[in-house]
Amino acid sequence: MEILTSRERFNLLVFDETPDRVLIFPLITNHSAYVSNYSIKDYYTKGEVLAQSQINAYEIYQIDFLSVFSEVGIIAEALGSYFEYPQEDLPKLRKPLFSNLKDYWERKLNCQYDEGKGRLYLYFDAIKILYKTLGDILPILTYIPAPFTTLALLFEPTEILKEVSIPNLQKKRILKEVLLLITDFTIQFMKSIINYGALPIIVDPLASGSVISPKTYKNFALPYEEKLINYLHRYDLDVILHICGNTQVYLKELNKSTADLLSLDKINLIAGKKILGNKFRLIGNFDTTEILLLSPEEIRKKVKKLVLKMKDNKKGYILATGCEVPFSTPKENLLAFIEEGKRWGRYKF
Amino acid sequence: MRVDFFTWNEIFQNIPERIIKRYKYYERKEEWARYLSPPQTFAIYGMRHLMSLKFDSSLECLRLWGFIFNETERLFRAKQINKKIIAVMGDLGGIPPIIYSFKSLIGFYPDCLWWQPFFSENYNLFEVTGKASFPETSCYSRVIYATFLKKAYFPKPDLIIASTGASCDDYSCVMQKVYNLFYKDKKTEFIWLEIPPRKEKRESAIKLLKENYQRLAKILSEITQEKFTIEKLISGIKRVNLIRRNYQRLKELVGKSEIAPLGSLEMLLLEFGNLHFYSDILEWQKILLGILNLVRKRIKDNEGVLNKENKKIIWATPPADPLYLIYFEDNGTRIVGSEYIIHQALEIIPINKNKDPFTALAESYLSASLIGKTKERAYLIINEVKKYQAKGVVISQVFGASHCAYETEILKEEIEEKTKVPVLIIDIPLPSSEIPLQTKTRINAFIENL
C-alpha cells in the first residue's frame, strides 16, 4: 500500500516538493464508460453515470486524478449550438448556432449565464457525487473548453477557421467581441465548478498547431486562455492547460502562458522539457494511438523510457497520455501503463 | 455577518486583484507567498468540511482563514527559503517565545493537525495510525503520528521537541512513536522536555522548567549557529506578549459585548493562534490586530453576527469537529468564553527588569490547563462563567481519550456546584459531514433549558 493519497501527492507537487512518485494521469474520460459497460449516450447525458464510470475507473486503475469531461462542445451547446447524442458514438455537432460572422452580427449571442443551460448540469451532478465519494483523496479535474474552441463550435467550423486565418480589421473586431462574450460565460461556468469542489483544467483542442497557425494562436486563442488562467489565479489555484495535437510549432508562444502545469500531446516532450521545464510542471504525453494498439509489453518499454527521461523535470512531472484514452483501449494496456509508471516514477522520499 | 460557503464565493468576486495580491507571508514578494484565498480554494484541495461551515464575511476573517489553511504550504516554503523548522509537541505554549528569539527559526505544533481529518472528512490518517497499532479509543491527536509518516503535511523538522510529564497520556504515546520513528534517523534531532506534573511545589517546578528552557536555548543556538542572548529572549517574549495581550483584549470584548461581534469558530482559530502563530509570527500579529479593530468597530456600530437573543455559553476542551460550534450558534447560543486546554498560551509572560526571563517563562507556564488538579481547571471554567455571565457550559470530549475519561465528570460536578448552570458533555465522533441526530437532540434539549 502506498503511504500517500493522490491528493497529498498532488499537493506536494504544487508546493514544489518531490512526492513519493510521479503522479499518473492517463486522461480517462469516456473510456471509463467502456470499462463500466455504460452506453456512451448515458455517459454524455447523465451526471450519475459519468460519476459512477469515473469511480469504477479509479477502482480498476488506481489513477491519481478523476476526470469530469464529456466533449469540448459543452459550452457551445449551452450557448445554443445543437449536438446529437448517438447511443454508441461520440456526440456530434449537428447545427452550430451561427453559420458565419454575418449571421452572428444579425442575431447576436445571448450570453446570460445560467447553471440550467444545455448540459452544464452533467458536470455539476457528476462533480457533486465524485466530491462526496472520493474528493477527500483524489483531485477532481474538470475540463473546460477554452474560448477559441467554443468559438469554433458556435459557428460552422470550416467557415470560422477560414475567418480567423485571414481576418480583416472589421472581422477581427467581431471575432474578439464574440470571444470576450464566450470568455465571460466560461468564467461563470468555472465559478460554478469551483463551488462544487473541482479544479478546472483548461482545454483548447481546436487551438492545436494541427488546426491553426502560431499567429492565429497568438491572436485568438492565447489571450482568452490567459483570461481564464487569470481568473483561476485569483483563487490561487494551480492551473492546468491542456492542448491537444501538435504544439511543437508554437512552443515559444506557449512558454508565455501563465499556466502552472502544461499538458501536451503530440510533441517531443523530452526535447520540450528544455524550453518549458523550468517554468511549468509538465504533463504528458504517451501516444494515444499506441496505448490503444500496442501490446502491454511494448507499452511498458515506452513508459519506462518516457518516465525516466521526464521525472527529473525541474518543476515536476505527471505521467499522462497525450490526450484522451481511446474509448475501447484494452484494460491490460492501461494497467501496464500505470504499473510501469508507478514502478519507474519512484523518487527518493 | 456570517455567510455560507457559496455566498463567500460571490463576495470573493468583488475583491479587487490588488487586495488579493497584497497579503503575503514571511514578508516575501513572490507569488507563492500569497494567502488570501476563499474557502473554495481549500475545498478544491480536499477540505470538504468547509462546504458545511459558516464564515464571517469580512475581509479580515477571509485573511484569517486563508492564512490558516495555507500553513502546510507555508512550512514547505519556509524550508525552501532556508528557515529551520522546529516541531513542538505537547507543550502547548511555553516554547515559542524561545524559538522566536532566533531569526531563522519557524516553530509549529504538529498537534494542531488533529483537525485535518475533520476538515477533509477523511479517515486516511486514522487508518494509517491504526496500522501502527494505536487503539481506536484514544485521542484524535493520534493522527499526528500519520502526518509524520507521510511527510506531506510539513517538511522534515530540523528539531523535534516533545514534552513529558504533565502532558496528555494519549499524546505521550504519539510522541513516543514519533521518537521511535526518528531515533533511527540520527539526522533529525529529537529532545524531550519535562513538564512538572504539579504546581504545589512552585519553586522546584519553576526550577525544572527553567533548566529545560535553558537547555533548549542552547540547542537552538547550535542549530542556528546564532548566538543566544538574554536580550534576544526578552525581545521574543515581548513579541509573544503583544499577541497574547491583543488576544486577551479581543476575547474580553467579544465575551462582554451585548452583541456577538465575532463567531465562535473564528474565535477558536484565533485562540489557537497563540500557540505558534500559524508559523509566521509577524503576519499573525497583523491579522490579529485587523480582527481586533474589526470587533471594536462592530461593537461601536452595534453590528453582531448572531441573534441578540442567543444565550451565552462557555465551551471547554476544543471540539475536534468545528461543525459543532456552528450548530450551537445556529440553534440559539453564543459562545462567550472558552477553556481549550491551552491556558498557558494565553497568559502574559511576566517579564521585568529584575526577573530573569527564563524564570518569567516558567512562571507563566505554571498556569497550564493540564498541570495540577482537575479542580484547578474547573476553576478556570467557573471563572469564565462568572466573568461573562454565561447560562451554561459545554464540554466536548473524545470518547476514550485519557484526559477526558479522567476529568470530564469532575469538571461537570464542580462547575454545576459552584455556578448552578447546566453542563452538557458531548462526545465528538469521527469525521462526518453531519452531526448525529441523537447528539442534535441532546444539544437542542440542553439549549431549551438555558
Structure overview:
The complex is a heterodimer of chains A (349) and B (450). Chain A is of the alpha/beta class. Helix content of chain A is 51%, strand content 14%. Chain A contains 16 helices and 10 strands. Chain A has helices at residues 6-14, 31-36, 40-45, 47-61, 74-79, 101-107, 120-134, 147-154, 157-165, 169-196, 214-234, 251-254, 269-276, 288-293, 296-310, 331-344, and strands at 23-27, 66-68, 82-84, 92-95, 140-145, 199-203, 240-243, 261-264, 281-286, 317-324. In chain A, the strands form 2 sheets. In chain A, strands 1-10-9-8-7-6-5-2 form an 8-stranded parallel sheet, sandwiched between helices. Chain A has a two-stranded antiparallel ribbon with strand order 3-4. Chain A is globular and about 60 Å long. The relative contact order of chain A is 0.14. The model of chain A has no long low-confidence stretch (mean pLDDT 94). Chain B is α/β, with parallel strands linked by helices and 450 residues long. Chain B has helices at 5-13, 17-20, 39-44, 59-69, 71-80, 96-99, 116-120, 124-131, 143-150, 169-183, 202-224, 230-256, 264-276, 281-300, 323-330, 357-365, 374-388, 402-419, 437-448, and strands at residues 2-4, 54-56, 84-89, 105-108, 159-165, 189-195, 311-316, 333-339, 392-397, 423-427. In chain B, helix 8 packs across helix 9 (143-150), helix 9 (143-150) runs parallel beside helix 10 and helix 11 (202-224) packs across helix 16. The mean pLDDT of chain B is 94. Chain A binds chain B through residues 3-5, 7-9, 11-12, 15-17, 19, 131-132, 135-137, 139, 191, 194-195, 197-199, 234-237, 349, and chain B through 5-6, 9, 12-13, 17, 20, 32, 34-38, 40-41, 43-46, 48, 51, 72-73, 76-77, 80, 120-122, 124, 128, 149-153, 155, 433.
